[in-house]
Please model this.
Amino acid sequence: MADKVLMKGNEAIAEAAIIAGCRHYFGYPITPQTEIAAYMAKQMPKIGGTFLQAESEIAAINMVYGVSSAGKRVMTSSSSPGISLKGEGISYLAGADLPALIVNAQRGGPGLGGIQPSQSDYFQATRGGGHGDYHLIVLTPASVQEMAELTIKGFELADKYRMPAMILADGTIGQMMEPVSFDFEVAPQIEKPWATTGTKMERKHNIVNSLYLDPATLEVKNIERYERYKIVEENETMYEEYMADDADIVLAAFGIAARVAKSAVNEARKQGIKAGLIRPITVWPFPKAPFKKAVEHCKAIISVELSMGQMIEDVKLASEMKVPVTLTSRVGGMIPTPNQILEDIKKAAEGGR
Amino acid sequence: MVVFEKPKALTDVPFHYCPGCTHGIVHRLVAEVIDELGIEGKTIGIAPVGCSVMAYDYFTCDMIEAAHGRAPAVATGVKRADPENHIVFTYQGDGDLASIGMAETVHAAARNENITIIFINNAIYGMTGGQMAPTSLPGQVTQTSPYGRNTDLCGWPIKVCELLSELDGPEYLERVTVNSVAHVRQAKRAIKKAFQNQIDNKGFSLIEVLSSCPTNWGMTPEKALKWIDDAMIPYYPLGVYKDRSAQKKEA
Model:
């Protein structure tokens, strides 16, 4: 068992990125993710890497586009309003089939919103966020340890499937400190023969591009990309089930909301209510299987979110509404208490009222 | 015997440019410079959004298509991915560089990012059909300034070389044109220097090329070349706006 260090979630992401072989980071200051940039600013010069504070989030994501085009692992991080600005660049990354890791330490919105934790960028993250048909691989850590693990995973998946991956975190997990182990096996980086690294006069030129003026060609490109997405859905969906096997009331929650939900499940069990939790770890691809299984035995599903109800749409689709699906949430930077969730579990157990 | 040949750094794909457009000349000059400096194998070009969007098909070096205005940021990434082995240039028009991409342009210059920018100023948005550009001249008639550019309503043209020359960052800024043989030769010298500066690790070089757009100016190719002399050069004087290494030598 390797040593553990006490670290903030944001710092764990930064350290894990370095372990994953990322030597290029570009960002623009925004709360609550500045620890990532600060960590990179300190560490990158020591290891021959690049930390650059860009003039805007737009510039940062395009610097990411440049490094990724050149075949190297690269990341940027931001928080909700900044991710909106990166939306254009993320669409281009997807359109040019470029891997990259993007971190969103979500805060309350819309607009400037607030700086307290939120999960209200779920739609933006899982539906792409920019223009056009595309997806990101979206990973949702619920602990500092997972911040680190999913960062490594994010780089590996992005490279493997030539698509951007996102760590969809929130202000709480980013800021809180927990013990974390960095004892990881990092797979060797794969070859990127498509990268624009100079022809060295040894091959025909590579072109990184998302423009296809011929509609038939563009259609084929889109369809091919979705074939790849299908493989991602089949192979890379991740989730955790907690006492869900025999549960009458199943909670669905990710990230920080899942930790509160787990406490509520424990309390409900103590009080004799068979509650359980399905925690999606990837929210794209969304884990449909555990919900399909759950509706065979459960009476109701409660989606616990830090939004006005976004993931609940995926829960309804996955469960095919075979049982009632309701929402328990707080927004604007507020977080539900285990008690609030417990009350809703009780209501659902009594058949809803 | 000297045989006039296509530069090796250009592919066989026919240019899509309109008759009388000077993009073709500037593409050729860039390609000649790449050939002469022997850097094709390590060069990565960034195409813009605009008429030269498909420049990625025309150069034999590795090419990247960037989002509108973002080429200097993309170039920053490509250069920093492998500073020793990458020669990076962007090729951008006036809408791309001086309007939507102004922040990326100014900050790449301020950082003295070790890249080469070829900036085509033809005072109009060509690809979208002739709208007013940040560089359209006062009084210039375009699709979106049908009564002539009214500076009371839509402000004044942006002089990119003059603007950037106020920054401490950039190494080399020169404005050239390609509307005569003499001007073409001068333009090539400037472009070559802009690439040589990058090889020598001197930093940010931007060459502004006053260019023609007969189609959207509503002129014959011949008249368009004359309009550069008569209207554009008086507003956008040719010359070197910054040459830090030369200034250092003088000091």
